[in-house]
Amino acid sequence: MRSKARIAGKAILFLVAIAALGAVVMLLWNAVVPALFGTARPIDYLHALGLLLLSRILFGSFRGRGGWHHHRHWEKWHAMSKEEREKLVHSGPWGRHRGAEE
Q: How far is CA 32 from CA 21, 23, 43, in A?
């Protein structure tokens, strides 16, 4: 019984968050874009939700850069020894340019 209430609460919270994000996108667009670009028109709420969905499709998760995938790499980095880290840094794209100078 508690798990059903928890799932329903999370679903409602998710819907409220999406609705709030749509409103924020609409307000920001209408405040900034028409002022910057004379040919841009203000958008309504449904267009703001569409813009939010489009940005999700094009740029990935709303969790921020990397999401949980980035977290796994951070754990691997901490599990490496100092020598392994140095080897990785010098063999990666960061070390190539530096190695050419030496």
A: 16, 14, 11
| Rounded Cα distance, 89 and 69, in Å | 20
Q: What does the angle CA 75 – CA 77 – CA 80 come to, to the nearest 5 degrees?
A: 110
Whole-number Å distance between alpha carbons of 80 and 66: 20
> Average pLDDT of the chain?
81
Specify the pTM.
0.53
Residues 6+ apart with CB under 8 A from 40: 33, 34
Q: Are 35 and 28 in contact (CB under 8 A)?
A: no
Contacts of 6 (CB under 8 A, 6+ apart): none
